[in-house]
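Dear U.,

For the methods section draft, I wanted the exact inputs and outputs in one place so we can describe them consistently. I've listed the two proteins in the order they'll appear in the manuscript figures. Please don't edit the token lines directly; just add comments below if something needs changing.

First protein:
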Amino acid sequence: MSKKRGLSAEEKKIRMLEIFHQSKDFFQLKELEKIAPKEKAITMQSVKEVVQSLVDDHLVDSEKIGTSIYFWSFPSKAKNAQKRKFLDLQTELEECAKKLKKTEDSIAVESANRVECEERTQLLLMFHDLEKKEERLKKEMQKYRDSDPEYISQLKTECRDLKMAINRWTENIFTLKSYIKNTFHIDNATIEQSFNIPADLDYME
């Protein structure tokens, strides 16, 4: 049986927020450490980290009253935080759009004022020739790649790892066949036919 997957950090934050929003109450950390594992399957050891993460994201408020720290969050808090984040992103997008427009205008001005000269033309021709030469050399190198010791070593390592993986799965299949045979008293041929297992399945040498 596969091991049950634990909650991700984001899932823990969502579930912790549900505690606040559903109760609309104020909590101390020790109270959350009792409630979260029982109601939301959040481990007690991770409660403090999750709550602090929500405070850092401005989704949960906290206040020290006397010697105790209280935490709370109402549904409107999350909506306001999302709205604030949206507005911040919108402002950032507008700033980027302004910078892009300024850069495009500068390019247009430079292009309009650019004076064609023989030296520039020759440099462009040389650049394009070098690009073609580079592409030609890359193709030539590819022909000799099969003789590259480093590449061959890499292939050997990959082949070894693949063979180990194949043999590991082959062992798993043999173990499963043995279990089915001994538990349900089914012969090999029937098992192989039922699970589309090749009769000549064997380890790789």
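Second protein (the one for the lower panel):
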Amino acid sequence: MLSSMIKEHQMRQNVKKESQENKRKDAIGAASNLTQALVDHLNVGVAQAYLNQKRLDAEAKQLHTSAINFSKQTNQWLTLVETFSSALKELGDVENWAKTIEGDIRTITIALDNVHRDLQTQTQ
């Protein structure tokens, strides 16, 4: 009787140990799944931040390139405007020179007309 009670007790203990072992394995599996889920969730955020950073870097490079091109275009326009301004000044100088020449020619023409009239008056 005592030996059967001991055997029964040992059997119950073995069943409880197996049950506890199964529960421990289930708990370890659940903890592992939870850890993996948390890591995956964090990785999604990190991956999104990484992609955003890459996109920002690409846009910053493009903006820098655009700024350099704009600067070059602006310098070309400034050169063009300066050239145009110089050309206008030269045209103004040419116009002034032409007016001076025109005035001198008128003076000479008037003088020649006066001389011609005086000569005609003297010959008559």
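Candidate sentences for the figure legend, describing the second protein: Residues 86 and 92 are 10 Å apart (CA to CA). Helices lie at 2-123.

Thanks,
Y.
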